[in-house]
Structure formats: C-alpha cells, structure tokens
Amino acid sequence: QVQLVESGGGLVQSGGSLRLSCAYYGTNFGHTVMNWYRQAPGLERELVATITPGSSTSYGDSVKGRFTISRDNSKSTVYLQMNALKPEDTAVYYCYAWDFETGREGGSWGQGRQVTVSS
C-alpha cells in the first residue's frame, strides 16, 4: 500500500514562486512514475507534470517553462517548483503515483494542497 503526503503550497502574489513536495511511503519509489495534477473549482483535474523512474519529464502546455518537476530517489520524494505563478494557476494540486504493477489508472493519490495566486 502506497501513501503520498504532500506539503508546501499556500498563497503567493502573481509572479511569485512556490514549491510543492510529495513524500512517497512505500517500497517501489525507484520504479514509480510520479505526477502532479491540479484541479480548479468547476474544472476537470488537469495533468501538470510527470517524471519517470529515469527522470524524464513532461509538462502541460500551460506550465511549460515555468514549472519544474524533480525527484530525489534517496528521499522518496518528488517536487514541483512553480515560478512565475499566475492567478490561473490557482487550484488544489495533487500528487499521483503509479507503476507497472498498478497500471496508469490504478495508482495512489495524495491528499491535495491548495495553491492560491493573487493578482
């Protein structure tokens, strides 16, 4: 059973920066695809960034060039560095982990962290 515990986020002015962390409690972090999603009120959950076990990364179009996902396998933690934040980045951010045993749809979610960007 995998547990994901998120931290960070909060309130920042437009143009500012925040960092989210997601600590993975389980036994297979090194083989796990880690993702950040976000969901704003009234909107569907959106994939923000992905990092593979080999540290290949991909980003949603709306955050490319501003957000950076990274992982520290020694700490079983994934990070999302968010720079040049905009009011439209305001959302609850969720960490999502899956591996080849769970499959892409059967992974685990974190509890979510609120990020609010004021204009």
Give the percentage of residues in beta strands: over 45%
Helix-strand pattern: EEEEEEEEEEE
Structural class: mainly beta
Q: Over all CA atoms, what is the radius of gyration? A: 14 Å
Kindly state the percentage of residues in helix: under 10%
Low-confidence stretches: none
The biggest sheet amounts to: 7 strands, mixed
> How many helices?
0
Task: Give the integer mean of the pLDDT values.
Answer: 97
Distance from first to last alpha carbon: 40 Å
Strand element count: 11
Main traits of this protein?
119 residues; mainly beta; seven-stranded mixed beta sheet; four-stranded antiparallel beta sheet; 11 strands; 52% strand; globular
Describe the structure.
The protein is mainly beta and 119 residues long. It is 0% helix and 52% strand. The strands form two sheets. Strands 2, 4, 5, 6, 9, 10 and 11 form a seven-stranded mixed beta sheet that branches. It has a four-stranded antiparallel beta sheet with strand order 1-3-8-7, with no helix packed on it. A hairpin with a 4-residue loop joins β7 and β8. It starts with a strand and ends with a strand.
